[in-house]
Amino acid sequence: MNSKLSVPGIRKNRKYTQFAVYFFILLLVFQLVTHISLFTEALTFLTTQITYQVIKLFYPYTTLRGFHILCGIDMEIIYECTGIYGIIVFASAVLASWYPFWERCKALLLGIPIIYLLNLLRLVTIFMVSQLNPTLFDFMHTYFWQLFLLFFVVYLFYDWFQKMQKKYP
């Protein structure tokens, strides 16, 4: 009699359990590392500067004071506005997977800039919509873009994961 369990799917389930454990560990590690003040200040500064420069193309009278973009409304860019949480979730999921290291690196090199650029688009459109109708700021900021970014990050990972499953069955 064989002492090993030979239940179909047990190995696959173990892979997914291991993925979940690694994913949550990586979430915690990235959360701690990215909250070092040197990192948070640099990312917030960069995001504010880029957002300001893009907005200034459409609204030349816009001014910048610290992390505040001013032109009819006062839009303050804080660390949570940088897209870092979507990046952390995506990076944690990719790195927790069992696919080859170079495939994970390629996914990060492509996915992180895409998420960051989409977040910049989010900031610029929130500002522009707020110029036209300031009452829409809360809806655009709290609901529309937050949900859209969440779905986009999940889709980006799902799409990459599906491609990896086909490439490495």
Task: Summarize the structure in short.
It is built from five helices and three strands, in the order ααβββααα. The protein has helices spanning 10-33, 37-58, 84-96, 101-132, 137-167; strands at 63-65, 68-71, 73-76. Helix 3 runs antiparallel to helix 4 (101-132), helix 3 runs parallel beside helix 5 (137-167) and helix 4 runs antiparallel to helix 5 (137-167).
Overview of the structural elements:
- By secondary structure, the protein is mainly α.
- The protein has one domain.
- The chain has 5 helices and 3 strands; from the N terminus they run ααβββααα.
- It has helices at residues 10-33, 37-58, 84-96, 101-132, 137-167; strands at 63-65, 68-71, 73-76.
- Strands 1-2-3 form a 3-stranded antiparallel sheet, with helices on one face.
- A hairpin with a 2-residue loop joins strand 1 and strand 2 (68-71).
- Helix 2 (37-58) packs across helix 4 (101-132).
- The longest helix is centred in the last third of the chain and has 32 residues, at 101-132.
- The radius of gyration is 20 Å and the shape is elongated.
